[in-house]
């Protein structure tokens, strides 16, 4: 009844146990006799069952069955992805009486820290969406200048502000302090966008400038392609008052050679946005005379599939 000892006696061929090696052979012979002969000493009849070829199946382990079940559930969830529920009414209404009515201004930005930055004429306010607290970051001195573009950085630590009088500033949102001024534009800066450490700005002086904010000489490249103001996205996409949309490759922007030139809009290209989870999908919106929102997949061999 000592199973460990019996297993050792059956499997060990070299070590001599105290009971002697003769016990090993006797035990083996006993097993052979009992497994091959019945109680009357006659050999067992072995019947082979092969089954029907149409009905026989390969044996599947329990773990494999579980894996197949999980894979089936996963495939079903992927195919039946529910659409995002978009509310039909507002959740909260905020008082913004000093919000400037400017077609070219882009004065709101919602950061990854869940804080909404809004320019209300000369003031820049931060609203925390969790505790509903409102903080005034700064106020522009002088009545002829005000913020015309506001953009959070990707890490939600820095705010970029473009101004009516061509200034471009970086502010630390936590300390409410000015980090630096960026030069290069001579007109209203209506659009700014971040791509990692690179800040891109579009201005009414018909230029697009890329700034490397880590460098002392921060201007990385400057492009003058549009007939008027520009807005930009991620790769980079830019649009202007001449109804044209350009797509640029970041490594080649210094040469002012665009990748694609699209002319599908019938009015100024007012809004551009790259998809945050599918890098090659771009959405663009036209002005009042166009009234169309276009989106499509950007490829190297084709421009934009609307």
From TrEMBL:
Pfam families per UniProt: WD40_CDC20-Fz (PF24807)
Keywords: Cell cycle, Cell division, Mitosis, Repeat, Transferase, WD repeat
Molecular functions (GO terms): anaphase-promoting complex binding; transferase activity; ubiquitin ligase activator activity
Cited SUPFAM superfamilies: WD40 repeat-like (SSF50978)
Residue spans of the WD repeats: 182-221
A GO biological-process term: cell division
Cellular-component GO terms for this entry: anaphase-promoting complex
Keyword Transferase: yes
CDC20/Fizzy WD40 domain mapped to chain residues: 94-294
InterPro entries assigned: Cdc20/Fizzy (IPR033010), WD40/YVTN_repeat-like_dom_sf (IPR015943), WD40_CDC20-Fz (IPR056150), WD40_repeat_dom_sf (IPR036322), WD40_rpt (IPR001680)
Coiled-coil ranges (or none): none
Protein name: UDP-glycosyltransferase 89A2-like
């Amino acid at each position: 009844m000592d199973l460990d000892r019996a297993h050792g006696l059956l499997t060990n061929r070299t070590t001599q146990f105290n009971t002697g090696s003769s016990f090993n052979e006797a035990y083996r012979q006993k097993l052979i006799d009992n497994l091959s002969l019945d109680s009357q000493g006659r050999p067992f009849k072995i019947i082979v069952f092969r089954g029907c070829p149409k009905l026989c199946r390969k044996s599947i382990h329990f773990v494999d069955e579980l894996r197949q079940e999980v894979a089936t559930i996963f495939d079903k969830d992927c195919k039946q992805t529910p659409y995002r529920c978009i509310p039909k009414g507002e959740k909260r209404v905020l008082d913004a009486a000093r919000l400037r009515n400017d077609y070219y201004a882009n004065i709101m930005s919602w950061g990854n820290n869940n804080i909404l930055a809004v320019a209300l004429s000369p003031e820049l306010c931060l609203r925390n969406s969790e505790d509903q607290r409102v903080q005034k970051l700064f106020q522009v001195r002088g009545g002829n200048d005000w913020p015309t573009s506001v953009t959070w950085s990707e890490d939600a630590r820095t705010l970029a502000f473009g101004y009516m009088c061509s200034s471009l500033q970086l502010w630390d949102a936590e300390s409410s302090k000015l980090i630096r001024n960026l030069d290069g534009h001579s007109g209203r800066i209506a659009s700014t966008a971040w791509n990692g450490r690179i800040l891109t700005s579009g201005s009414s002086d018909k230029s697009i400038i890329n700034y490397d904010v880590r460098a002392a000489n921060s201007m990385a490249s400057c492009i003058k392609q549009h007939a008027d103001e520009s807005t930009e996205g991620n790769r980079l996409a830019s649009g202007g008052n001449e109804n044209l949309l350009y797509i640029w490759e970041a490594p080649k922007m210094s040469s002012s050679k665009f990748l694609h030139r699209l002319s599908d809009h019938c009015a100024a290209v007012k809004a551009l946005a790259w998809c945050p989870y599918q890098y090659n999908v771009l959405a663009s919106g036209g002005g009042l005379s166009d009234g169309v929102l276009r989106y499509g997949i950007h490829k190297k061999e084709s421009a934009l599939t609307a």
